[in-house]
Amino acid sequence: MVLKFIKEIIFLFTTVLGTLGNISVSVNYMFSWWGGPEKKPIHLILIHLAFTNIIILLAKGLLNTIAAFGLRNFLDDIGCKILIYLERVARGLSICTSSLLTVVQAIIISPRASGWRRLRPNSWQVLPFLLLLWIFNVLISSNLLYYITAGSSLNRSRAGLYSEYCYMLPSGCTVKWLFLSLMALRDVIFQSLMGWSSGSMALHLYRHHKHVLYLHSSRLANRVSPEVRATWSVLVLMTCFLLYYLGDFISSFYIGSVFTLDSIILNAKVFLGVGYADLSPFILIIKDFHLASCCPSRLYFQGSLL
């Protein structure tokens, strides 16, 4: 009973705190994007990332919070389809948006003599990419709108448990492997881009550090440029994303490989599924160099992210 109560409190606390954190980040960067002298593409990408995090927390975190408090069969077919579908789309958008964030930041900090510098986008050029990401993820998750159903409306022996209250109907091999292949291809492509751009940024920071040491000037060494602060923020974000993604992947693989489901593993998988959405806004808040200087007359971040 005590463990159940602790689980309820943790689910509720992380969902509410993560949602409030993402709302705070999105609102502040909206003010920064609209009211700032320069509309920075990174701000727009971060707004989109916070928005997808909110969808994940409301669709997945809130559902598991309600289930933890003992409510059952409160979703019909339409409710299951909508919430599971939104969570899957938002998860894909989180992967793609995080990858886009690292690629754009890597281009921004690339040396001026590099050919990548000419690819530096503005905010209006980022918008079509975000739209394409939405279309792509909406399409590759569309099978859920047909195969997800509420547990109260079917013979459960015919379906596999998708969540604590929603089930997935069996599908043909062609449909199953088509959508699985598309999702796997998406994850491989965008995480490869994320890894390449993160490595590029880490190399840039290493060269910058050696350059600062070469200057032998404490005054210059203690002055961290906005680009370096921004790059560190993005790298910390991507490290957290990869850790949570790998943890979620390993737990999903384990659950799919055993016949007896361990409640500890299932609960850990839920936390790993929403962990990045919970943690990422607070990384941005803590890492933002000018957050403490915000005042009522300027409610947006003077953020270091470029």
From TrEMBL:
GO BP? response to pheromone; sensory perception of chemical stimulus
Location of the G-protein coupled receptors family 1 profile domain:
21-284
The membrane topology noted for this protein in its Swiss-Prot or TrEMBL record is: Multi-pass membrane protein
Q: Which GO CC terms are listed, alphabetically?
A: plasma membrane
- As recorded in UniProt, coiled-coil segments are none
The record, for InterPro entries, names: GPCR_Rhodpsn_7TM, Vmron_rcpt_1
Show the GO MF annotations: pheromone receptor activity
The record ties this protein, via Pfam families, to: V1R (PF03402)
Places the protein is found: Cell membrane
Q: What is its main location?
A: membrane
Segments spanning the bilayer are 9-31, 43-71, 92-109, 129-149, 227-247, 253-277
Keywords in alphabetical order, please. Answer: Cell membrane, G-protein coupled receptor, Glycoprotein, Membrane, Pheromone response, Receptor, Transducer, Transmembrane, Transmembrane helix
Entry's family note:
Belongs to the G-protein coupled receptor 1 family.
Q: What does this protein do?
A: Putative pheromone receptor.
Its name, as the record gives it, is: Vomeronasal type-1 receptor
Q: State the species of origin.
A: Peromyscus maniculatus bairdii
What's the source species' lineage?
Eukaryota, Metazoa, Chordata, Craniata, Vertebrata
